[in-house]
Design goal:
heterodimer; A: Immunoglobulin-like; six-stranded mixed beta sheet; five-stranded antiparallel beta sheet; 11 strands; 0% helix; B: 112 residues; mainly beta; Immunoglobulin-like; seven-stranded mixed beta sheet; four-stranded antiparallel beta sheet
């Protein structure tokens, strides 16, 4: 079963616009991570937010976490064609083995 | 690039044949993971390892076995491949300090 559920499944925007995607999860977490996957490639880590944090920034990325609602959002500002990719949230329950549970992902297409 | 390679990168095999996928890392990371990625499911954990000869089952382990006889190599074996095991397989590693995972390039497996 998946821990994270992402919304929307797909998103199409133009360059310069902001892209927002959401992740909901079911059980308590130690941290939540976002990854990007370009077509046919492995996943690349983008940002990690801990359960005691509410917001985090990294470049054009802004992540929020609401543990009371068990949800997170990823905002990409001023999107570029190079941001075209699938984005996945992953939850870490804080067990001893670093296991992650991934959502099904949001496919983002940025057109010039 | 966390020094992770996967081999083979592509494989076509027939139902009932054994298949072994290899994950190799060059940085002595303790934790290694095997995932499969299928449309609509994100990544699902098959097996993981927390040291040489220390492995355990993940979410979708039926039909798969693993071995880790050296720190740098984590092997995934399909004892008797089935068409439902057609997928893209990703290996990932995690260090002991950072909580993020680093992914290999993936292996595309087609079982006919």
């Amino acid at each position: 079963s998946q821990q994270g559920e992402e919304d929307p499944q797909a998103l199409s925007i133009q360059e310069g616009e902001n892209a927002t995607m959401n992740c909901s999860y079911k059980t308590s977490i130690n941290n939540l991570q976002w990854y990007r996957q370009n077509s046919g490639r492995g996943l690349v880590h983008l940002i990690l937010i801990r359960s005691n944090e509410r917001e985090k920034h990294s470049g054009r990325l802004r992540v929020t976490l609401d543990t009371s609602k068990k949800s997170s959002s990823l905002l990409i500002t001023a999107s570029r064609a190079a941001d075209t990719a699938s984005y996945f949230c992953a939850t870490d329950a804080g067990d001893s083995w670093g296991k992650l549970q991934f959502g099904a992902g949001t496919q983002v297409v940025v057109t010039p | 690039d966390a020094g992770i390679t996967q081999s083979p990168r592509h494989k076509v095999t027939e139902t009932g044949t054994p298949v072994t996928l290899r994950c190799h890392q060059t940085e002595n990371h303790r934790y290694m993971y095997w995932y499969r990625q299928d449309p609509g499911h994100g990544l699902r954990l098959i097996h993981y390892s927390y040291g040489v000869k220390d492995t355990d089952k993940g979410e979708v382990s039926d039909g798969y076995s693993v071995s880790r006889s050296k720190t740098e190599d984590f092997l995934l074996t399909l004892e008797s491949a089935t068409s439902s095991q057609t997928s893209v397989y990703f290996c990932a590693i995690r260090g002991s300090v950072k909580e993020t995972q680093y992914f290999g390039p993936g292996t595309r497996l087609l079982v006919l």
